[in-house]
Amino acid sequence: MLSKLKFLVFASFIAAVSANPVVRNLILHEQRESIPKGFVKIGSASEEQVLNLRLSLVSSDAPGLENALYAVSTPDSARYGQHLTKEEVEEFVKPSQDSATKVNAFLASHNIQAKSISPAGDWLAFSVPVSKANEMFNADFSVFKHQESGTQYVRTLSYSIPTDLQGHLNLVHPTVTFERPFSAPVVSSPRMSIPKAQNVTTLASVPSSCDSEITPACLQALYNIPDTLATQSSNGLGVAGFLEQFVSEDDLELFLESLRPDLPSSTTFTLQTLDDGSNPQGAGQAGLEANLDIQYTIGVASGVPTTFISVGDTNSDGQLGGFLDIINFLLSEDNPPFVLTTSYGFNEEDISPSLASVLCNAYAQLGTRGTSILFASGDGGVSGSQSQDCTEFVPTFPSSCPFLTSVGATAGITETAADLSAGGFSNVFGIPSYQASAVSSYLSELGSTNDGLFNTTGRAYPDVSAQGENVLIAINDGGELVQGTSCSSPIFASVIALLNDRLIAAGKSPLGFLNPFLYSSVGANALNDVTSGSNPGCGTNGFPATTGWDPVTGLGTPDFAKLLTAIGL
């Protein structure tokens, strides 16, 4: 049987009395049952250590935001494509005056004045010493170490909030979330010289070398992707960068000269930075992930304006690595990119359910604005973002959020599921209506296989897939083959960006949140169904790929020509 969730919400009351004259009743808000696997407790945190805490306030109309997202994203809706403005979205998200007043009164009673760190004012930030944080939230902030990396965090296994803030305060962060360090894609071959592009005379001809080495020419042939230049300057494709992963302009030039000689080798990207992000060009500073993501957006989405968004490590989102910061950064813009691809993620169990829900709603905000958000599903098969020992299947996040598109991985000319392709079912989010029928069909066919190892009522992922093994990139003046769903997400995102170019040229809206369209019969029939392979892990064969949607390759890989017809062009 599935074990119960690692987080519990209680309704027991605790009296909290401090030196402050205001006496408040506290109620336990979030708690972990135990220290997460892979972490050990070092000891109590120093009482003088300063914590940078964040408060998430309850939105005034979260259901209204979700309804609006589906209304503008579902093809048969009368409001399809009528994406909302920045101000319209903020009206759904901003906390009520009552919530803001009560939360600020609580802070003022502790002589704290917080600052807003989100466009709608639903996130507040302040700094206090550990002793004060323990007092305010009846917590026990301690030092925990991630054993594999040695990274240390100050966290608590439980915390409480005043009873009068129930229904007004979503969560305090960072408290019970134990995010693990991100990881980069895996190199699957030694260094090599980067070969010149092969001629592809027709889109139907797939070079034989593609079985062992994926290039832009392979993707054009496999997925009917045109090499003609996009024409719309208002279009935009954003690539999220983290972990001081930097894009080498010299490597991009080499990649284009060798593998896209029809594009000007001077083709480049716009740089945006936040949280002290940067993109230095010193010798040896090129990042495997950053190079991959930019080379397979610029090199596939021919002519689409591409932006590398470098997120530094001075994050405002409380050691979430900038995941919330980048969304708030884009939400603050009048014209965010129409596509955003991210090749990083967590295991769902590392994030508190409350925090996962708040982040998921942030993705909904951006989707309602008209941005297609794509995330790599992870590289551990059913064992999570990376391969690990486990006794139950491990969902990944943000892929488990129902308001974005999760991308799994395939391999080979006759595409099969890549073993590494993370996929499964959320333990936090329920099955959204757009995929209910597809998931039900799969579970019926699956039968009793993997009984008790996953949540049959959870949001299922990935939604789609693309090539994710033996992908050739240029790095440090040479070539390397890499693998991972971090290859797949920028590839699929590039196809969507090219479709948006055609839509904008025709005077239509960009696709925005993709899933209601993709799971429709018209959308699903425009994808290449992948019916073989599986994603082993946790001592099992994982899930099998099969006809229709499956939790390995989703609905399948893109066919640009069919998708173009499916969107009415």
UniProtKB/TrEMBL annotation:
Active-site residue numbers: E289 (charge relay system), D293 (charge relay system), S486 (charge relay system)
GO molecular function: metal ion binding; serine-type endopeptidase activity; tripeptidyl-peptidase activity
UniProt signal peptide: 1-19
Catalytic activity: Release of an N-terminal tripeptide from a polypeptide
Location of the Peptidase S53 domain: 213-569
SUPFAM superfamilies to which the protein is assigned, alphabetical: Protease propeptides/inhibitors, Subtilisin-like
Residues involved in Ca(2+) binding: D529, V530, G548, D550
InterPro entries listed in its UniProt record: Peptidase_S8/S53_dom, Peptidase_S8/S53_dom_sf, S53_propep, Sedolisin_dom, Tripeptidyl-peptidase_I
Record has Secreted as a keyword: yes
Record keywords, A-Z: Calcium, Glycoprotein, Hydrolase, Metal-binding, Protease, Secreted, Serine protease, Signal, Virulence, Zymogen
Subcellular location: Secreted, Extracellular space
GO CC, alphabetical: extracellular region
Single biological process term from Gene Ontology: proteolysis
UniProt enzyme class: hydrolase
EC number: 3.4.14.10
Glycoprotein keyword on record: yes
The protein's name: tripeptidyl-peptidase II
Organism name: Phellinidium pouzarii
